[in-house]
Design a protein that fits this description.
The chain has 14 helices and 14 strands. With about 400 residues, the chain is an alpha/beta fold. The protein has a 7-stranded mixed beta sheet with strand order 2-10-9-8-7-3-4, with helices on both faces. Strands 11-14-13 form a 3-stranded antiparallel beta sheet. Helix 2 packs across helix 11. The longest helix has 15 residues. Bound molecules: pyridoxal-5'-phosphate. Pyridoxal-5'-phosphate (PLP) binds next to helix 4.
């Protein structure tokens, strides 16, 4: 007799939309602009360094917090770009992608009865991990301007949801899926609210190096009032076209890093040794590795949007990340989840419906398309979409 299903810790969670859409894309031979991964490799020099370090016997456990050289380089880079010094020994931890850092941070900080604010549309891991910690996710929709198709923090709603139980606010700027950014004034407003409720901040900045049209990313680390109560998470996956390597990191003041490390040491303990060596050597050799990343992706965005010229989609060019939202209200009044599947079958382009990132948000007529793809893939996708 089959064993009955165990009582689920996450009963509301099924297969993620990314798996659903990617499976549908391969079943129907669609161009897959759904899942957010680059269609190109990390730099050849970096790949060669991984091989070299494996051959050089760097194959056993790395230190729990990460390779000291890599942490020192990250500290220097953060200090140069934000003015904030993070101590590599006590304030920087290398993790298995940003995902592990987010998991450890949430598990380390939240207790049953606590509340954590999630700004919708939100990356899909935040709320389930808050629930796993026994805490309560409080969803606040970003303000959406249907004219400009732009999103921003809804300060009134955020202020209304925060209370004495708010232990953590989770933010992600540059923002997936909308491309929204924060500026220095936003950081000050955030600091006011966090101080008022004595809450902590978890800032997911994995798209820190992908910001367009001359704009700049304002890291939480650049604001002194925020830094003392923040954990700042990033990833080499997005910055080096290496999403499959799953190497990320978390910077946070000592008292917060110490708690994060307690969870990290029992989650993965440490992460890939040869890759950490390779990354450290690569960062030392090519300190300007991210300088052209924004331009690189801006060109891809522009190719995609130029190829869509003449279509019935409405859009505002993404401000950041490698995702473009397209408004389909002139084409259909169907739900985004239904249309994303329908259009994967014909004309054969897979995307992600915006509503899957949102619990609090209103019904949008928006789909998210990943443009971290070769030009020919983008032109093929746009050609198919123009036929609608
Ligand atoms: C906003 C955001 N945070 C975190 C991640 C996960 O990063 P990693 O692959 O380094 O775990 C992603 C990946 O798509 C993301 O978009």
């Amino acid at each position: 007799m089959q064993l009955p299903a165990p009582k689920s810790r996450l009963p509301g969670v099924g297969t993620t939309i990314f798996t659903v859409m990617s499976d549908a894309a391969s079943a129907h031979g669609a161009v897959n602009l759904s899942q957010g991964f680059p269609e190109f490799d990390p730099p050849a020099e970096l790949r060669e360094l991984v091989t070299w370090h494996m051959a050089a016997s760097h194959n056993q456990y790395a230190p729990m917090a990460g390779l000291p050289d890599l942490r020192a380089l990250l500290s220097a880079r953060a200090a140069a770009s934000t003015g904030q010094q993070a101590d590599p020994d006590t304030e920087i931890t290398i993790t298995a992608g940003a995902t592990e850092a987010l998991f450890c941070a949430i598990q380390a900080l939240l207790h049953p009865g606590d509340e954590a604010v999630v700004l919708d549309p939100a990356y899909d891991s935040y709320a389930p991990v808050v629930t796993l910690a026994g805490a309560r996710p409080r969803h606040v929709a970003l303000a959406f301007d249907p004219e400009s198709l732009e999103f921003s923090i809804d300060w009134v709603q955020l202020g209304a949801v925060m209370n004495d139980a708010t232990r953590l606010v989770i933010v992600n700027f540059p923002h997936n899926p909308t491309g929204a950014l924060l500026d220095a004034d936003d950081l000050e407003r955030l600091a006011d609210l966090l101080e008022q409720y004595d809450s902590l901040l978890l800032s997911d900045e994995v798209y820190e190096h992908i910001v367009f049209d001359g704009r700049r990313h304002s890291s939480v680390m650049s604001n002194k009032r925020l830094w003392r109560r923040s954990l700042v998470v990033s990833s080499f996956g997005k910055s080096l076209h290496a999403t499959g390597w799953k190497i990320g990191y978390c910077m946070a003041p000592g008292v917060l890093s110490q708690e994060l490390r307690k969870i990290h040491q029992f989650t993965t303990f440490s992460v890939s040794t040869p890759m950490q060596h390779a990354l450290a050597e690569y960062l030392a050799r090519c300190p300007d590795f991210a300088d052209n990343l924004s331009r690189f992706y801006e060109n891809k965005r522009d190719h995609f949007l130029a190829a869509l010229e003449g279509s019935r989609f409405r859009f505002t060019p993404a401000r950041s990340t490698f995702f473009q939202l397209l408004d389909y209200s002139a084409l259909s009044s169907k739900k985004d989840t239904e249309l994303a599947l329908e259009w994967t079958r014909s004309p054969g382009v897979a995307s992600i419906p915006l509503s899957v990132f949102s619990e609090a948000a209103p019904a949008y007529r928006l789909l998210r398309f990943c443009f971290a793809k070769d030009k020919s893939t983008l032109v093929d996708a746009a050609h198919r979409l123009r036929a609608l």
